[in-house]
């Protein structure tokens, strides 16, 4: 299935024309050019579910995000590698996503504990109570932004509690992260500046844990403080620890609210489905949430760079070349999902790519799933009748993270 | 090659497994997450009747940490 750029078909996935028409372009790629090679970017784009599945499962340090999992088009155009790039630095320790094995796994293991299934399950009451409190504040307004005012505030408050940051900081941190997600890779040269803006929020949390003795009571941070880089036995600096935690902060705040609000909106758009789900919320909502995640997950793509020659999904990739997994396209692949562009709350879902896969697979999957379920549950039990004011709604139509950032809901009853 | 004696062994790559429990959700008779969130393989040799379950677990493991190895 070697389909390489042909003279008669050339597109630039970062161009405004393509971005304005993404779904149609994804479909054309899946049907006609499932592996599309872009010479300017020296990148293979994979758009089918099966191929993305295969690409993301490649291990053994063959495909890594050393150059960035979200490179800018400018970077891709101006950097063509003649061989494998050097591995990321381990002294100082590079930001988690850029690392190779075994460092990637060690950094992750040092802070994943609070996000594992049992710990997350123990957060159920906290999330439900936050959702209830939020609704009590918001309902008298009769109209509010379901994405940010409701799901967003609850999500960021949970993240603040994991970081040990005061809830009073939540709103400000949320606004910063959303600024980051609005970021347009065509206009700027790197994500670094935005990430740096979060340093000022994360470093004090690390310092507070050091001052408290890092005794293990904060599972997100203490493990990174007590981690030692072997064989030197070197401890990580505040900045190195911060670089490991930025993803959990951004990831924890950005995607979940968009999936929650759009998910509720998709049900509302289809009254017969909303009715069916409501018939037994406890049993049906967890099923509907799987479809919300497939249908609404904002991430469009993730890049890797080949660190050796390899053949993957039928194409030969040389060391230094890049592969891009088009995650959203994969979730809409008709070869994996029947009628993929339809929202069907109880469709069979055999496998998903919405949380990525392989080495970088989403660390927050369990938390996100719990939050979406709890938020939708509280909303649908508290509010009997509602509608969305879609004329006023706002969608992030960028190329990196898409989704409804402003989804005004009107409370009728 | 005596097919009747083929058994399948479940192998976990502990350096990759991050204890996310997707396998235990797909095949609770074969995997369990312990109280400390480490993965326990309940039966590392599976027979024909459990093979489909074991394959489902391999498929859903997001970290590609599971492998089935045929043993005779
Ligand atoms: C519905 C909500 C969410 C979706 C759709 C989502 C999606 C994703 C995807 C697609 C990846 C893979 C990125 C890649 O391969 O480059 C990822 C990774 C990650 N996510 Fe999530 N995520 C969600 C919620 C969360 C939450 C709640 C957290 C934290 C509490 C989180 C933290 C992370 C982290 C730390 C990574 C690893 C990044 C890396 O190593 O490259 N995410 N997520
Ligand atoms: S699904 Fe894979 S990574 Fe997750 S606990 Fe099972 S073996 Fe480990």
Characteristic terms for this protein:
heterodimer; A: alpha+beta; five-stranded mixed beta sheet; globular; B: 72 residues; Alpha-Beta Plaits; three-stranded antiparallel beta sheet; two-stranded antiparallel ribbon; 2 helices; 5 strands; binds protoporphyrin IX containing FE; binds iron/sulfur cluster
Description of the structure:
The complex is a heterodimer of chains A (413) and B (72). Chain A has a 5-stranded mixed beta sheet with strand order 1-2-10-7-3, with helices on both faces. A 3-stranded antiparallel beta sheet of chain A has the order 4-14-11. Chain A has a two-stranded antiparallel ribbon with strand order 5-6. In chain A, a hairpin with a 2-residue loop joins strand 8 and strand 9 (315-317). The mean pLDDT of chain A is 93. With 413 residues, chain A is α+β, with helices and mostly antiparallel strands. Chain A is built from 16 helices and 14 strands. Chain A has a single domain (16-411), classed as Cytochrome P450 (Cytochrome p450). The N and C termini of chain A lie far apart (55 Å). By secondary structure, chain B is an alpha+beta fold. Chain B has a single domain (7-71), classed as Alpha-Beta Plaits, CATH 3.30.70.20. Helices cover 25% and strands 28% of the residues of chain B. Chain B has 2 helices and 5 strands. Chain B has helices at residues 22-26, 48-60; strands spanning 7-12, 31-33, 39-41, 45-46, 66-71. In chain B, the strands form 2 sheets. A 3-stranded antiparallel beta sheet of chain B has the order 4-1-5. In chain B, strands 2-3 form a two-stranded antiparallel ribbon. In chain B, a hairpin with a 5-residue loop joins strand 2 and strand 3 (39-41). The longest helix of chain B is centred in the last third of the chain and has 13 residues, at 48-60. Chain B is globular. The model of chain B has no long low-confidence stretch (mean pLDDT 87). Chain A binds chain B through residues 57, 59, 101-102, 105, 108-109, 112-113, 116-119, 351, 355-359, 361, 363, 365-366, and chain B through 15-16, 18-21, 33, 35, 37, 59-60, 62-64. Protoporphyrin IX containing FE is lined by residues 69, 96-97, 115, 247-248, 251-252, 255-256, 259, 293, 297, 299, 302, 327, 354-356, 360, 362-364, 367-368 of chain A. Protoporphyrin IX containing FE binds next to helix 12 and helix 16 of chain A.
């Amino acid at each position: 299935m070697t389909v390489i750029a042909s003279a008669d078909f050339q597109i630039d996935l970062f161009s405004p024309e393509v971005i304005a028409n993404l779904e149609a372009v994804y479909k054309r790629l899946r049907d006609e050019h499932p592996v599309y090679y872009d010479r300017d970017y020296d990148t293979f784009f994979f758009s089918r579910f099966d191929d993305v599945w295969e690409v993301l499962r490649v291990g053994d340090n063959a495909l890594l995000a050393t150059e960035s999992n979200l490179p800018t088009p400018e970077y891709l155009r101006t950097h063509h590698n003649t061989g494998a790039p050097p591995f990321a630095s381990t002294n100082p320790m590079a930001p988690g996503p850029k690392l190779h094995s075994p460092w990637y796994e060690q950094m992750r293991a040092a802070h994943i504990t609070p996000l594992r299934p049992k710990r997350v399950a123990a957060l159920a009451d906290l999330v439900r109570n936050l959702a209830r409190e939020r609704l009590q504040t918001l309902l008298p307004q009769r109209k509010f932004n379901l994405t940010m005012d409701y799901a967003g505030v609850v999500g960021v408050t949970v993240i603040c509690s994991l970081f040990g940051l005061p809830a009073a900081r939540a709103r400000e941190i949320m606004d910063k992260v959303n600024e980051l997600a609005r970021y347009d890779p065509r206009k700027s040269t790197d994500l670094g500046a935005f990430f740096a803006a979060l340093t000022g929020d994360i470093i004090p949390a690390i310092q507070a844990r050091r001052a408290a003795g890092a005794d293990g009571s904060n599972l997100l941070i203490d493990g990174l403080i007590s981690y030692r880089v072997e064989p030197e036995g070197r401890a990580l600096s505040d900045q190195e620890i911060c670089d490991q935690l930025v993803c959990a902060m951004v990831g924890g705040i950005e995607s979940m609210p968009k999936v929650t609000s759009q998910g509720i909106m998709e049900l509302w758009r289809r009254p017969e489905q909303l009715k069916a789900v409501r018939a037994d919320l406890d049993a049906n909502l967890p099923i509907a949430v799987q479809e919300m995640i497939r249908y609404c997950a904002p991430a469009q793509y993730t890049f890797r760079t080949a660190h050796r020659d390899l053949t993957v999904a039928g194409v030969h990739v040389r060391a230094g070349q890049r592969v891009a997994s088009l995650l959203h396209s994969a979730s809409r692949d008709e070869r994996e999902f029947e009628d993929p562009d339809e929202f069907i709350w109880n469709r069979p879902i055999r496998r998903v790519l919405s949380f990525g896969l392989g080495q970088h697979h989403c660390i927050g999957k369990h938390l996100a799933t719990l939050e979406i379920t709890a938020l939708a549950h509280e909303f649908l039990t508290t509010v009997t009748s509602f509608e969305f004011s879609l004329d006023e709604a706002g969608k992030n139509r960028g190329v990196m993270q898409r989704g409804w950032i402003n989804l005004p809901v009107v409370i009728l009853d | 090659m005596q097919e009747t004696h083929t058994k399948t062994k479940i192998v976990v790559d502990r350096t990759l497994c991050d204890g996310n429990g997707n396998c235990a959700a797909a095949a609770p008779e074969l995997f369990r997450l312990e109280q400390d969130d480490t993965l326990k393989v309940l039966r590392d040799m599976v027979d024909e009747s459990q093979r489909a379950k074991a394959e489902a677990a391999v498929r859903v493991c997001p970290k590609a940490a599971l492998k089935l190895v045929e043993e005779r």
